[in-house]
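A favour between colleagues. Tell me how you read the following sequence-structure pair.

===
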Amino acid sequence: MRKGQAIAFNFTRDICGEAQMIERAFGIGASALAEAVKLISEGLETKTA
């Protein structure tokens, strides 16, 4: 991928997000759907607290 092509898949918009994209590409880390669910649930927890 070239710079800027995968911005839609980098949920956290930082270097950790880029590392997670590489892990997903090689089947090492959690899937994009699992990470999205985690981010949404964390956001909901902070709003209710």
Notes: The radius of gyration is 12 Å. The helical segments are 15-25, 32-48. The CA atoms of residues 21 and 27 lie 10 Å apart.
